[in-house]
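Q: Sequence in, structure out?
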Amino acid sequence: MASYRIRQYREQDYDAVRTLFARGILEHAPAGYRHILRSARAQLGLLVLFAAVRAAAGYWVLGLAAVALALAATWPVVRSFSTSYVHQALCTDLCDISTSYLRAPDSCFWVAEAGGTVVGMVAVAPPQDPAERGVALELKRMSVSKDYRGRGVSKALCGEVLRFARARGYGAVVLSTSMVQVAAQRLYEGQGFRRVGTFSPSLLGSLLCFQIFHYRCDLPGGTAAPPR
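A: Exactly. Output:
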């Protein structure tokens, strides 16, 4: 039997939801940093830096120092992807959750609760992409507390979104997740989502090989455009 329950968001959940979301996003920053350092582009850049400094200064120790400084400088840049994303969310839809998701059409927000504590969250809303509006809904703001991962919470929250979209006649649910959120990718693929696109959030993201994956789940019985 599940040790949690899924229910609609309430105003008293506000602080817990915002904290859970921020922690869930920021914890992926180290994985993003490691991923970038493993990329061929980053390794080539560090090698070129080492060789250039060694050739200019004549000391390999200075080359290593230059590489170390580059690695140290890269971390705050990579972390800024997460912090800026969190800041943007907290200042927009997660600033007034009820208005954004409970009073807006074709939108909703759920939390997973265990022992009176919010341990998971997810939202659904019309997608920002104009080409998807009227055809699909977007799964957003999925996050589950570390202590409750592996218990089916994410799957249950995802199921709420799929049922919500299907009940309103939509033909698909779309979402975006970062390349380093491997567990989330496995979850979505297990629920019928397939990757349909890849993009970088900025020019800097492109240079650092940081990508966002776009997923889509087609719903059986859905229509191209739901009735209004």
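The longest strand covers residues 117-125.
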